[in-house]
Amino acid sequence: MRCRFLFSILFLVAATASAQEDLLACVDPDVRAGLLPGLAEETTVVSRDFPELLSGVAPSDGLEFIGSSVAPFETTAAYKTGLATGDAFGTAAGMLDEAGWRLFEIQTPVSGGFVTSAQPTPQFGTFCRDDQALHVVAAEVEGATYVRLSLWPDVGPCEEIPGGMDSFAFPPTGEPDLYEHMPTLVIPEEAAVLNPSGGYIIGAGGFPGTGRSVGTKIELETNLSAQSLLEHYGQQLEDQEWRLDTAWSGESSSGSAWTRSPDGGPELAGLLDMLALAGSGYRASFRVALRDSQ
Description:
- With 294 residues, the chain is α+β, with helices and mostly antiparallel strands.
- It is 15% helix and 34% strand.
- It is elongated and about 60 Å long.
């Protein structure tokens, strides 16, 4: 269920569609089942109608309603706005408050890793009313902010969700403290991201992890050399109080090793690696690990 909440809004809204028409009726069945998250079930209907289960939520001047998705496992209302993600989330919270929904918890996405220079932070939150839980996400996609209200009938009351609402906060699989120490590595303006499907929560990269190490990686296309990329990210690491230990340069791989000792925190080791791909691409990765012997 956590995965459903990760997906950004993927509505295909036709300008001439009627209010009762399934807006995805003309989409190839293979595309609908294979590429559109949460819409593979034949009983899912995407339309311009506001969902009945959310009928108590009044319209807002700040958010433009664009459509809904109704399925047995989830009912969703989607909005579009020119507001920043934080303001859009606040507007949605005001709408829900007027409808009797109370804020249960705001989830904080994992930060750090490889990000674009202008990447805004998505906003997540959970609201409760009576025996229902409603989940809200506001995220920017290609210059516009989309707000998604998702009601899951089979979740149950907020107070009865196993483990509390942490199950919807996308907890990392690695050592929690290590994620707090993951540096933010801004992608060069001269580079294009080749694998943007890693998710908007932490940017275009991913965070594979174990109990004692976490990492982020991304694939880039750029005319910059591996050495230029190492210098670009190396300066950012120094600015975030990482100290260079050593560096190397090979035919297909170049990289550098780093250390950091945050006040009151663990002794950390960092490994920055640039692997040359075919053409003008690189797979860049950075891993943080604990230096103690436990």
